[in-house]
Amino acid sequence: MNVLTQYIAKEILKGSFIALILLLTLFNLFTLTDELKDLGKGNYNLTAIFSYLALTSPRVCYELVPSAALMGSLFVLGAMGNNRELIAMRAVGVSILGIIQSVLVAGSILAVFSICLGEFVAPTTETQAQLLRATAQNKPFVMHAKYGLWLREGDKFINIRHLQENNELADISIYDTTFTQEHPRLQSVTHAQKAVYVASNQWRLDTIAQSTISTSQMQATSQSEQLWQTHIAPDLMQIAVVNPDNLSLMDLSSYIAFLKSNQQKSHAFQMAFWGRVFNPLVTFVMLLVATPFVISVKRGINVGGRMMIGIVIGMGFNIIDHIFGHIGLIYDMNPLIITLLPSIIVSALSLYALKRVI
User: Fold this and answer.
1) Res 261: pLDDT
2) Taking the alpha carbons of 173, 178, 181, 183 in that order, is the dihedral positive or negative?
3) How far is residue 30's CA from residue 301's CA, in Å, rounded to a whole number?
4) Dihedral of CA 144/147/149/155: which sign?
5) Sign, Cα dihedral of 51, 54, 56, 58
6) Could you give the CA distance from residue 203 to residue 27 in angstroms, rounded to a whole number?
7) Nearest-angstrom CA–CA distance, 357 and 297
8) Residue 236 — pLDDT band, cuts 50, 70, 90?
9) How far apart are CA 161 and CA 65, in angstroms?
10) SS3 annotation, the chain
C-alpha cells in the first residue's frame, strides 16, 4: 500500500467515523424525544432511558455504517477536489481507478467494523435494551427459561408457555405464594388455557382450573372465564418474541431452519439473514456512488451542499431498499433476489457513471 492510498483511505475513514458519530447523535436525539414520553412510567427514569439509548447504539451504528461511508467519502473526496489534491494526484500519474482502489481499501475496513459490530455486539445489547425498557416500564421481573417465559409480580410467579398473535397468551400458570420469616408457602395455583388482553391492567383468563392449598387440605375449582388484574402489559411480551435485530447471522440461520422444520413462515427472517450477509456490499456500493459523483462535479460545491446530496442519496437508497423488502414480503418473492436487487441497480448506475468519467 503506497503513501497516497494510505492517505486517501485514512481520510475517508476519519470522515466516515465523524459522519457516523453525527448521524448516531441525531438518531439518538430523536429516540430520546420519543422515550421521554414514557418517562415516569413504572421505574422508567432518566437513568433507564440513557441506558436504553446506550444499549441500542451498536445496532443503530451497524445500520448507519453505509450512510456514514457515503457522507464521509463525499465530504473527504469533495474537499480534496476543492483543494485540487485530486488534480495533483492525477498529475503525478494516479489514475481514477487508483483513487477508487484507495476508496475501496477504506470500504474494506468499514465492512470489517460493520460485521464485528453486527455479529458480536449489536444482537446482545439490543436484547438487553428491550429487556431493560420493558421491565422498567412494567415492573414485573422477567426471565426466559426452557419452559417458557417466567415473570414475577409481587408474591405471584407467572409462567407463560406460548405467545400468540393479537395480544393473546396460551398455557398460563399463576403461582400465588406468601413469604414468611420461616419459609415461603404456596397458596394457590391457577392454570388458564388462554389469556386475552382486555384493557389497561386487565386480562381475561379462559378455561380456568384453580387449586387452593392450605395446611390441612387442597381444594380444586374450575370456571369458564375470569378477569385477571395485573401490571403485565402486552408490550412486555414482545421481549420474548424473536426479533431479527436481536439475532446474529448464525442464530438467524438456525432459527430459519427451525421454522422450516416446523412448517412455519420464515420469509421475514430470510430477508434479515440475506440483509446481514450483504450489508458490507451496501457499504462498497455507497462508496462507489460517491467517487464518480465527486470527480464529475464542479469544485465550487461547498461542504453543506455535498452533505445534503449525500443525505438525499442515502435516504433514497434506504427508501428503495425498504420498498423492495415490503414488496418481497407481500408477494412472497425470493429473499435473496429482493435483498440484492437494490444494490445491483445502484452498483450498475455507479459503474456506468465511473465509465463516463474514466
Assistant:
1) 74
2) negative
3) 29
4) negative
5) negative
6) 36
7) 10
8) low
9) 38
10) CCHHHHHHHHHHHHHHHHHHHHHHHHHHHHHHHHHHHHCCCCCCCHHHHHHHHHHHHHHHHHHHHHHHHHHHHHHHHHHHHHCCHHHHHHHCCCCHHHHHHHHHHHHHHHHHHHHHHHHHHHHHHHHHHHHHHHHHHHCCEEEEECCEEEEEECCEEEEEEEEECCCEEEEEEEEEEEECCCCEEEEEEEEEEEEEEEECCEEEEEEEEEEEECCCCEEEEEEEEEEEECCCCHHHHHHHCCCHHHCCHHHHHHHHHHHHHCCCCCHHHHHHHHHHHHHHHHHHHHHHHHHHHHHHCCCCCCHHHHHHHHHHHHHHHHHHHHHHHHHHHHCCCCHHHHHHHHHHHHHHHHHHHHHHHC
Cell numbers 418481497 label which residue?
A: 328
Q: What is the dihedral of CA 340, 277, 61, 233, to 10 degrees?
A: 100
Task: For residue range 35-46, list pLDDT tens digits in order.
Answer: 999 898 878 899
pLDDT band at residue 1 using 50, 70 and 90 as cut-offs? low
Query: Residue for cell digits 435494551?
Result: 129
Q: What is the dihedral of CA 26, 7, 277, 328, to 10 degrees?
A: 60
The model carries a pTM of 0.73
- Among all chains, which residue has been given the C-alpha cell 372465564? 225
Look at residue 296 and tell me whether its pLDDT is greater than 80: no
On whether the CB atoms of residues 199 and 225 are closer than 8 A, the answer is: no
156: left (phi over 0), alpha (psi -120 to 50) or beta: beta
- Say whether pLDDT at 232 is over 60: yes
Q: Which three cell numbers stand for residue 138?
A: 412494567
CA-CA distance, 252 to 92, in Å (whole number)?
49
Sign for the pseudo-dihedral over CA of 246, 250, 254, 257:
positive
Tell me the CA distances in angstroms from 115 to 100, 180, 277, one per residue in order.
Answer: 22, 52, 9
Inter-residue contact 210 to 234 (CB < 8 Å): no
As a residue count, the chain comes to 358
Cell numbers at residue 122, please? 449489536
